Structure formats: C-alpha cells, structure tokens
Amino acid sequence: MDTSVNTPAAASQRRGRGGRERILAAAARLFATQGIGATGMEQVAEEAPVSKRTLYAHFRTKNDLVIAHLRGLARSGATLEGVLTRDDIPPRERIRRLFDQPAADATPVRGCPFIDAAAEFPDPESAVHSYAREQKLRMVHLIVAVLTELGCRDPLPLAEQLATLADGAASRAMVLDEVDYGRHARAAAEILLDHALPEETGKAEHLARG
After folding, report:
1. How much is the pLDDT for 80?
2. Radius of gyration of the chain (CA)
3. Which residues in the chain come in under a pLDDT of 50?
4. For residues 170 and 79, what is the distance between their CA atoms, to the nearest angstrom?
5. Can you spell out the DSSP letters for 105-148?
6. C-alpha to C-alpha distance for 139 and 168, rounded to whole angstroms
7. Sign of CA dihedral 84, 86, 90, 94
C-alpha cells in the first residue's frame, strides 16, 4: 500500500523539483530522531514528501540513502572534524574545538553520526560501515595536518590520541545528554599538546590564551 501523503500541497511538492534534497532532509531528520535502523524507506518518502517511485529513482537502496546522507554531513562541515579545515581559526584552537558538540543546540545531544552509522551497520564489509571508517581515518589525517602546522615532530600518535578523546567525548555527551561534556577531554588534550609541541609554540599559545 502506498503510504505517501496525498494532500494537494504534498502532490504539488512531489511534482516539483528538489525531490532529492527533500528526501535527504527528511532522512536527516528521521535518522537523528529515531535512528537509521528504525527508519523505513516508506517513512522517508512520506516525510519528504515524495512518491515511492521518486524515492527509489534517486536512491535504489536504503544503503545508498544512508551513504548520501553521511556524505552530505561530511561536506557540510557540521561534524566533529569539520572545524579542522577552517583557515580562519588558529591551529591549536581548531584542536580545542574538536571537543565541542557540532550542533550545540541539539536536543537531545547527538554523538558522531559516523560512529552511530557504523554501530547500526556492524559488518565491517558493509558499504555504510566502510564509509564511516573512511571518515574516521580522514579525521586523523586532518589532525595530523594541524599538528604538523603547529610544529609537532611526531604527529601521528598524538593525532590518534586526540581523535580517540574527541570520539569518546562525543559518545559520552550523547549517552549522558550533556552538551558540554567535551570539556573533560579538552583538558586532557591540552596536557598532551603542551608536552608534544615545541616549547616556543607552547609559550606563544599560552600568551594567546591570555
């Protein structure tokens, strides 16, 4: 049975342009509020609203839809690692902001969407899990680039430690529904940075912090 909305306004939307964008927006809302696994394709079509034919024309499978959703998040910069590529923020401050919630006004608090997706698709060989893994590896590479900019001589081990702190803080913030939980991980990150960075860089950073 077709459960698509059948009001005149919904029918007009289904005939109009922007179907793909409406589908992705609807999926993002539903995935955030009830999880990926609990969200069915027919529910996404109804929420968009689009016909099921339109939905499957854009996304042949739910996996396709989930990956498109995650790619959109990665491009938007609205994830933990999004701050790492911002040239308008000093490098050490970019590291500090890894421990802020990307959507500070989210209710309830949400964790990392890539970790959430990997948890809902636990098979390491699945397309969704593989994409989530790629993004987590990319996060480490971005941190390495920032640490290199700061003069760190051995950035990879420190980058892994900082990524672990950031991911762990995001997960605990979600579980505890505490938006500022990242302050605990940020304090640990400051100690790691102070020990790893050249003394001149550390002094300059402390002066900049006042």
Report:
1. 86
2. 20
3. 1-16, 202-203, 206-207, 210
4. 10
5. T-SS----HHHHHHHHS--TTSHHHHHHHHHHHHHHHHHHHHHH
6. 14
7. negative
